[in-house]
Batch of 3 targets.
Target 1
Amino acid sequence: METANPIFRHQISADVIALDKQGRVVLVGDVRGSRVVKLTLSQFTSYLKATQTVVPFAMLVDPETIQIVQWDGVNWSEAICSLKTTNIVNYYDPSCDNQTIDGDYLEALIESWLRDLAYHWKSVTPPATNDLAAIGLLQQLEDGSTKSDVEIAGDTLLGDQFFDEYLYWA
């Protein structure tokens, strides 16, 4: 008996995503331990166009800058919000000030910040709250959740078990 293996031709890898309270992806993020290359946006673009999925925001993070851009269904905007990375992550680990942050640890700190924005585990007013409210992202993050190192196919979040079980079996 043959087992059908679904193949997801259009998918994206994201270092971190944010989901709204209904579980829809509202932000895809790329976190680098070195300067961000905007190549990531073209990868996100291909995925979004192919799947006709609306993910309204993307976040490009490097040790110096957090840039947030918006998707209009056709193109990404220029940065609609630009933040100094150390101003954000220093709140969650004060020892990060004036030192190089490795990519995995930076990713963990960014995810902590997004979770704080979603359900205020550390602060009533997390860093950059007003900036994110001004662009409409904060409202979408509230009561939501985050995930890191994920694969998304269409509007489906692929977990490691699903991914291993169905995509890698030949």
Target 2
Amino acid sequence: MDNYTAFKQISLPKLNNLQLSLESTCLKLMEEAGELAQAIGKFRGMNGEKIHLKEQEVVEMISKELLDVAQVAVSMMFVLEEEYGINIKEKVDDHINKLVKKGYIKIEK
């Protein structure tokens, strides 16, 4: 991965003291995605409601909800690793290679 021109990394911790399963994590992911959609749609007035929030307040809400989605997605990867033996690094590398093939990431030469 060192050859990619632009690569930002976000590291999110494994959550402790939770009894996570694939199913419970998937449901939580859908819940958080719904909250993200609400922040994007409702608070930008896309559903017809008149919400009086400043743009920066909306962007802050979106960023918080997006991080909730990311945290749950990362937690789901930990469940796949721990319960089903999935190699996270291998899957991330495969994903990045897919992005390169599709032209979403350019390799620096």
Target 3
Amino acid sequence: MRLDKFLSNHGVGSRKDVKALLKKKVITVNEKVVTKSDIKINPETDIIKVQGEMIHFEPFIYLMLNKPAGVVSSTHDKDKTVIDLITGLEHYDLHPVGRLDKDTEGLLIITNDGQFSHDVLSPKKHVNKTYFANIDGIVTNQTVEQFAQGVTLDDGYHTMPGDLTCLSVDTNNNTSEIELVIQEGKFHQVKRMFEAVSMKVTYLKRIKMGDLSLDSSLKPGEYKKLMQNEINLVRK
């Protein structure tokens, strides 16, 4: 990897900033001062220092993205993907942890850690996914009980139990606001679960994975790096 790319990806500054530091002769590779930004380094074995401080290579990276509507949860697609929203981290070979429908918003984790993705997505790991939704229909105690027993989707699959909470009901407009906690991620699952009880999801947003909540400061399309304690909240 180019030295300037490595340093900019690890928070040292823009490539312009890196060039300025190189001119000041404060960057070393394996204890030797370097002045060229395009030299190739091995991030896993070379010792890179800036002003005497070692820059540690991170083999895995975890990002929280507030996915906007209209973007596909995929690595490659004819339409704009969630990976297209991430800049400067191409060498990590990133992928989304699961999928949100194109018109669904909210919390999506982006990583290059395949084992982490498996652990989070496997129903056997019992990682909760929490959604907020607007519903065309009146959610009642009976609806809550139906979800608690699991519902049968249009293809005959019977879902695992879902923890449905009705937040508000507007009888004049025949609508409801809800939160739903599930541990699966079947294709269009939340929408299909409500269709199974003759209701329709008109707006859907994932707000939580495990015990990790979507950062309210992130605008749609914005993302941030997750710290280890936040990553642990998802695994938990």
